[in-house]
Design brief:
- The complex is a heterodimer of chains A (about 130) and B (about 400).
- With about 130 residues, chain A is α+β, with helices and mostly antiparallel strands.
- Chain A is about 25% helix and about 25% strand.
- Chain A is built from 4 helices and 7 strands, in the order αββββααβββα.
- Chain A has a 4-stranded mixed beta sheet, with no helix packed on it. In chain A, strands 3-4-5 form a 3-stranded antiparallel beta sheet.
- In chain A, a hairpin with a 3-residue loop joins β6 and β7.
- The termini of chain A are far apart.
- Chain B has about 400 residues and is mainly α.
- Chain B contains 16 helices and no strands.
- The longest helix of chain B is centred in the last third of the chain and has 47 residues.
- The chains are: A alpha+beta (about 130), B mainly alpha (about 400).
Chain lengths: ~130, ~400
């Protein structure tokens, strides 16, 4: 794949779905669990956002496990099903073997479970904020 | 000079880190029952793990994407979820076996009941995974694991008839008392022990932890192509020791102490002490690797931040997975299940789960979009395809053979 910018045509199914999303510092954000697309007046289809988290993954898993994932997420995240967390496509800087963003992970509101685990579990353990020695 | 030292260190840790509880137990069992007639499986397994480690290491050095990241990308969320459930189940089983192995090594050294050691062992492993840097985990236990060379020394001291051993190995001359189904059951178990899937998850994720780039490829290859075969020699030494002493005496291997028995015959107390140190290092190191491998696989499927190159609070879900797995593994052992039996199950189920890991790696290593000029060439593809067939046969045969031979007891 030779450096496709978001404005050039590309295969969202192959080059975007299920790729790792990295923030501007290379930190891992999420997987591209689904994509948000929009049809323009001239008939062209453009990707407008990356959908992430269990709310987007559940419908793609399908079946009982998928329904359970979506329903559990909807309860815990207090968002209606069908409205997963999203990252606007304007933040995508580059797509290669990963999808690289131009924003920091902390400025995105996409990892509710990570924040919960950090605050309720991990930070309760001594030395959670120290670099491994 | 520094480069040579780091190359030597990599090779040494690859040797010392090669053997885990599965290799220890299975090689000793096989040696005590089949002599050297299954040595070809160790050779087959060592080449196999080399081929696939090199491939997954190359994928991660070129694309930056470790194995489970690639599995999710290639198989999609549904098939990758099924793969994740299978792989994590087998890796957890191995994790339980390794922690049990540490407890058994401590029992052997102190004569204090193994289950007393389980909570302390689990806590110590968790603490290492929480606080220690990646390369310290890899280097410290890899180097200490070299103590297992005591099995090679013991074999040499026992002074076996080498030409007889070689001829047994080459002609796959199984003792008449053993049936063929049992022979092939142990062949699958030995193959599973040599090629456990967690090794590839750990190896490829380690490439991200250590920030490999394409310039690291020669070093990575040297580690794999020199270190793994020498590690395989340790496996063969363990089997050889058992073949020389336990097989003629009719001793079957049901405990870790019996694995060490030939070393006691050959080298006495000091040999036993070194063997116990080797057992401890090999199982503790492998426990760290399997514990991390569970966190790596889950984190990579979901795209979470994972890895030891961050503070725990920056990879919270990854560390939560490790914490929960460690507690779970400790609790399973505290039901007083026999760690040797868990090990026997873990190597057979490893053989069963092998295709889940290896097929996606083979596909991606051929993908030029991902790999550019580092895509698989004819040698890697020929070997990779042959091994895919072997891995499939072992996987399909694993459960029927296990049931047919009643886990090798029939």
């Amino acid at each position: 794949m030779s450096d496709p910018t978001p404005r050039e045509p590309f295969n969202a199914n192959e080059d975007l779905l299920d790729r790792q999303i990295l923030d501007k510092d290379g930190l891992m954000v999420a997987k591209v669990d689904d994509v948000e697309i929009e049809q323009l007046d001239d008939g062209r289809v453009v990707v407008t956002g990356l959908l992430t988290g269990p709310g987007a993954l559940g419908p793609r898993l399908g079946g009982f496990l998928g329904a359970l994932t979506t329903a559990a997420w909807s309860r815990l995240a207090e968002r209606p099903e069908g409205q997963p967390k999203r990252i606007g496509f304007e933040h995508v800087r580059e797509i290669d073997t990963a999808v690289r963003l131009d924003v920091a992970r902390g400025d995105l509101d996409v990892d509710g479970l990570e924040a919960w685990t950090r605050e309720r579990v991990i930070e309760a353990i001594p030395a959670a904020g120290e670099k491994p020695a | 000079m520094k480069k040579i030292l780091s190359l030597a260190l990599g090779i040494l840790t690859a040797i010392g880190g090669f053997v885990d509880i599965g290799d220890l137990v299975t090689n000793a069992q096989v040696g005590s029952r089949f002599g050297m007639s299954l040595a070809w499986v160790v050779v087959l397994g060592v080449i196999g793990i080399g081929v696939f480690s090199e491939m997954s290491g190359r994928v991660v050095a070129v694309s930056g994407r470790p194995t489970f990241d690639v599995i999710r990308e290639r198989l999609g969320p549904r098939a990758a979820m099924a793969n994740l459930v299978g792989s994590v189940a087998v890796t957890l089983l191995t994790y339980i076996a390794e922690i049990g192995g540490v407890a058994l090594a401590l029992e052997l050294g102190t004569s204090v009941y193994e289950y007393f050691w389980v909570p302390f062992t689990a806590a110590a492993i968790w603490f290492v995974l929480w606080r220690a840097k990646f390369n310290i985990i890899e280097n410290a236990f890899g180097l200490l694991g070299l103590a297992l060379i005591v099995f090679s020394v013991a074999l040499w001291q026992l002074g076996p008839d080498w030409s007889q051993m070689l001829s047994n190995a080459v002609t796959a001359d199984k003792p008449d008392a053993e049936a063929w189904p049992t022979y092939f059951y142990y062949a699958v178990a030995l193959f599973g022990a040599a090629m456990t899937p967690y090794e590839v998850f750990f190896f490829s994720s380690g490439g991200v932890e250590e920030k490999w780039s394409p310039s690291f490829l020669p070093t990575m290859r040297a580690n794999v192509l020199i270190g793994f075969p020498l590690g395989g020699l340790l496996s063969l030494s363990i089997a050889g020791c058992a073949a020389v002493t336990l097989l003629p005496a009719g001793v079957s291997v049901d405990t870790l102490g019996q694995v060490a028995l030939p070393v006691v015959f050959a080298l006495g107390k000091i040999g036993l002490a070194i063997a116990i140190l080797g057992f401890f290092a090999a199982t503790f190191g492998a426990a760290c690797e399997t514990g991390l491998a569970v966190g790596y696989s889950v984190g990579q499927y979901f795209g979470w931040q994972w890895g030891k190159f961050f503070r725990p609070r920056e990879a919270a879900r990854f560390h939560a997975v490790i914490l929960v797995s460690t507690v779970l593994a400790g609790l399973v052992l505290l039901t007083t299940v026999d760690p040797i039996m868990v090990t026997e199950f873990s190597v057979v189920f490893s053989a069963l789960a092998l295709p889940l890991t290896y097929l996606p790696i083979l596909i991606v290593a051929n993908d030029r979009d991902y790999m550019g000029r580092h895509h698989n060439k004819w040698l890697a593809n020929t070997l990779g395809s042959i091994y895919l067939v072997i891995v499939l046969v072992a996987s399909i045969a694993a459960l029927p053979l296990m049931i047919w031979t009643k886990m090798g007891t029939a």
